[in-house]
């Protein structure tokens, strides 16, 4: 049995008397893409916030690469190798691609200029180009402001930034695989832009990154997901491999018209 990149066991989440999550078990393996599906209010966003450290669960446990952890903030999850890409992307529109890729890990000049906090932008551009080449990403020149990019290019920059941060965090902890949490990565994108994002998700998974994909886009799930987990009113109602699963069954689980079914590929 392989060690899961991320495993949640018996996760409960209460908001006063409201139970938003009810004993959720969830895992994602290195190199696996898991689609997290459900209607509005099903608990997807809440579970994603638990994974990312934004919310502390009322009960249950979280393990990263087999080590039980407690997240008190998103920075704790980031230190453990978990990165979240939000719907709003959190990019700085007025800054160029290189600056956005290097936020929080800027390269300073060596010597007196570095002591004074001067940033070596040429070095950052070179590093950015190397990192994007490793991911197989081609967007636009590193000096182009994000506000001049298409929606698909912006999404690719946000995904690449998180993938790069995952690699950086893991090099410090000694692990080999990180976790990316994607919240509606193709919302408001056209067909060609969606295909760009699909290709990048597959490349990142091929490099061993574990990916959790929250989306309402079922065709996207069929293209990139290895497994789907469906939530309904805070409970897990399905955990099945994508291959061979009837789309109508998935819709039935989402709407509550179909009985619960779980399939655990990894015990």
Account of the protein in words:
The chain is an alpha/beta fold and 267 residues long. The chain is globular. It folds into two domains: 6-94 and 156-262, 3-Layer(aba) Sandwich (Rossmann fold), CATH 3.40.50; 96-144, no CATH class. The chain is 35% helix and 24% strand. Helix 6 runs parallel beside helix 7. The protein has helices at 44-52, 74-79, 97-101, 112-115, 121-135, 151-173, 191-206, 218-224, 247-255, and strands at residues 6-15, 18-28, 33-37, 59-64, 67-69, 82-85, 179-183, 210-214, 227-232, 235-241, 261-262. It has a seven-stranded mixed beta sheet with strand order 6-7-8-3-9-10-11, with helices on both faces. A four-stranded antiparallel beta sheet has the order 2-1-4-5, with helices on one face. Strand 7, helix 7 (191-206) and strand 8 (210-214) form a beta-alpha-beta unit. Residues 169-175 have low confidence and may be disordered. It is built from nine helices and eleven strands.
Biggest sheet: strands side by side, in what order? 6-7-8-3-9-10-11
Order of helices and strands: EEEHEEHEHHHHEHEHEEHE
Structural class: alpha/beta
At the fold tier of CATH, the topology name of the largest domain is Rossmann fold
- Report how far the terminal alpha carbons are from each other: 8 Å
CATH architecture of the largest domain: 3-Layer(aba) Sandwich
Shape: globular
CATH superfamily of the largest domain: P-loop containing nucleotide triphosphate hydrolases
CATH class of the largest domain: Alpha Beta
The stretches of 5 or more residues where confidence is low (pLDDT under 50) are 169-175
Give the helix tally: 9
The main pleated sheet reads as: 7 strands, mixed
Strand content: 15-25%
Count of strand segments: 11
User: How many domains, as an integer?
Assistant: 2
Please tell me how large the radius of gyration is: 19 Å
Protein name: Monosaccharide ABC transporter ATP-binding protein, CUT2 family
GO molecular function: ATP binding; ATP hydrolysis activity
Keywords: ATP-binding, Nucleotide-binding
InterPro entries: AAA+_ATPase, ABC_carbohydrate_import_ATPase, ABC_transporter-like_ATP-bd, ABC_transporter-like_CS, P-loop_NTPase
């Amino acid at each position: 049995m392989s060690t899961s990149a991320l495993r949640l066991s018996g996760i409960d989440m209460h908001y006063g008397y409201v139970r938003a999550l009810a004993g959720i078990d969830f895992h994602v393996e290195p190199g696996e893409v898991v689609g997290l599906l459900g209607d509005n209010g099903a608990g997807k966003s809440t579970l994603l916030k638990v994974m990312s450290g934004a919310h502390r669960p009322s009960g249950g446990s979280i393990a990263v690469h087999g080590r039980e952890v407690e997240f008190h903030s998103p920075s704790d999850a980031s230190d453990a190798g978990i990165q979240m890409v939000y719907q709003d992307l959190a990019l700085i529109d007025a800054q160029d691609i290189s600056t956005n890729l290097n936020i929080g890990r800027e390269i300073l000049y060596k010597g007196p200029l570095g002591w004074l906090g001067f940033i070596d932008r040429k070095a950052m551009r070179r590093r950015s180009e190397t990192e994007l080449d490793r991911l197989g990403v081609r967007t636009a020149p590193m000096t182009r402001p994000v506000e001049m990019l298409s929606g698909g290019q912006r999404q690719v920059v946000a995904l690449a930034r998180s993938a790069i941060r995952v690699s950086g965090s893991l090099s410090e902890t000694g692990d080999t695989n990180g976790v990316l949490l994607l919240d509606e990565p193709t919302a408001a994108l056209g067909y060609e832009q969606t295909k760009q994002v699909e290709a990048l998700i597959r490349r990142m998974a091929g490099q061993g990154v574990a990916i959790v994909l929250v989306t309402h886009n079922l065709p996207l799930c069929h293209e990139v997901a290895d497994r789907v987990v469906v939530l309904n009113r805070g409970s897990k109602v399905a955990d099945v491999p994508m291959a061979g699963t009837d789309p109508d069954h998935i819709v039935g689980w989402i709407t509550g018209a179909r009985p619960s079914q779980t399939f655990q590929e990894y015990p």
